[in-house]
Amino acid sequence: MKDLLKSGIYASGTVNTNRKYLPTNIKNVKLADNGSSKCFQCIEEPNLTCTVWKDKKEIFLLSNGAKNEITTVKRRIGGNVSYVTCPKVIADYNMYMGGVDLADQYRKYYDISRKSRKWWIYMFWYLLHTTVNNAYIIYSTTNFPSEKKSKTPLDFRMSLIEAILKEKRIVETGPQTIVKNKSHKRIKIDGRKKDAYVAFH
């Protein structure tokens, strides 16, 4: 969070209480009632805060640019809808994390990632998968598709594969020109067991 703030990037994220550098007084926080909360501020870096909120259990959230503001959120308790107090930074986090959860859900449907010791290989498959998912979302929300019924994610992927293979076949069926390289000639040199290649200019 500190490094992100130095780069001008504001961020918020949940944190587990077993993290190495999390202060002990934060790790041991126990809140009694649902909706109760506490906010801790770093002395060295005042913009760094840790907010603890009691929902079904304690939720710990780090932020490098959030204000200590309170709002309310809906909760269903015993079949009835009620409003409980909640730190605004946690309410905002839950609202915007919905898109991330949906993206993870799409990726798990047809996961093409492969384990690798090289990080860039994982990143390649991750970005490819994300690109396909984004393309499907654009397809589903645009007015251009003429089909009365939108394709499922699997149908969309199959159509994408067929389109790529069709384009590849068109490219391969074009005229091919074979150019023979006459600048090298294989000759036998006395005293050598193997032939050698000699270049001509």
UniProtKB/TrEMBL annotation:
Residues 1-136 form the PiggyBac transposable element-derived protein domain. The keyword Transferase does not apply. InterPro entries: PGBD. The chain crosses the membrane at residues 119-139. Coiled coil: none annotated. The keyword Ribosomal protein does not apply. Keywords: Membrane, Transmembrane, Transmembrane helix. Pfam families: DDE_Tnp_1_7. This is PiggyBac transposable element-derived protein domain-containing protein. It comes from Araneus ventricosus (Orbweaver spider).
